[in-house]
Amino acid sequence: MRLRSLQHVSSPYPDGARPSVRRFYGEVLGLREQPAPSTLADMRLLWFSAGKGLELHFFPGPVDAESRRHFCFDIDDLEETRRRLQDAGLEPFDDTPIPNRPRFFCRDPVGNLVEFTRIEGDYQE
Asked: In which domain, by residue range, is 31 found?
């Protein structure tokens, strides 16, 4: 097997939280929502484009708001993003630093953990 890329990440959202997920990823983070395939229409999925060839998929299911399981966005402006999250009523927080990768974390409105970083070089330097 030769890995070409990571194509998507799937995370749950609790019943009734579809509008919160859509608002957070679409409006607060500015990701483009895309329709899920018609063959999956009955699954109540939300799909977002998250960069070249990468998608985020959200499905109805239980969220473990204590889990450290997460996905990470490599972004240009950490401080602007932190402010946008705070303005949206969320609570970004710092964690153990990694060389050449300034970062912070934030739970989305339904409890999924998201990391935000800016890759500035090799972390082993």
From this structure: 8-117
